[in-house]
Design brief:
By secondary structure, this protein is an alpha/beta fold. Strands 1, 2, 3, 4, 5 and 6 form a 6-stranded parallel beta sheet that branches. Helix 1 links the parallel strand 1 and strand 2. Helix 1 crosses helix 6. The two termini are about 30 Å apart.
């Protein structure tokens, strides 16, 4: 029996509400465009809040699986709501845990093609700016077009398709 092939796109949902639904839509569109895609609900990953004390207490068991899943995928989409004008705590904490694995805090992110999207109760634009800034700092190649939606401005299928198309054009850095 052949081992399962890891997806080449992981769609990360940083909430279990509207952004999880948006992540599912991204995964469907990615499959339409020939990618294998998997949705990763960060709210279902058992990671403690990242703190220096938590870090010195040892690596959480769920982190290895999360890290492995993200390493195996060549491209990511992150769907996150805006929390207090910035990145939601579940995503910030996961990024912090992932960035302390190994000797190079940028290793997982460096050269990784990433698209960003939001369904937010607020405008969502400050989240997009903060997330873009953090991902760029970590070395990711963030797609220029982003998707911002809310209850009065739903995400269009054509926009999701275009973001996936643009993401596919970016190739990860070769080691």
């Amino acid at each position: 029996m052949t081992p399962p092939v890891p997806p080449n796109l992981v769609v990360i949902a940083a909430s279990n509400g509207e952004n999880l639904k948006l992540a599912e839509r991204f995964a469907v569109q990615a499959r339409v465009q020939g990618l294998s895609a998997e949705v990763l609900d960060l709210t279902a990953v058992e990671l403690p809040l990242f703190t220096p004390r938590a870090c010195s207490a040892g690596t959480p068991p769920a982190l290895a699986s999360l890290h492995q899943k993200l390493v195996a995928a060549t491209h990511w989409v992150i769907c996150a709501p805006e929390y207090n004008g910035s990145i939601p705590p579940v995503l910030t904490s996961a990024i912090a845990w992932l960035s302390v694995q190994g000797d190079d805090f940028r290793a997982l992110f460096n050269g990784r093609p990433v698209a960003i999207a939001t369904h937010s109760g607020g405008g969502g634009h400050t989240l997009m700016a903060a997330l873009r800034l953090q991902l760029a700092h970590l070395g990711a190649h963030v797609v220029g077009r982003q998707l911002v939606s809310n209850s009065s401005h739903a995400a269009k299928d054509e926009s999701i398709a275009d973001v996936i198309h643009r993401l596919k054009q970016l190739q990860p850095l070769q080691p």
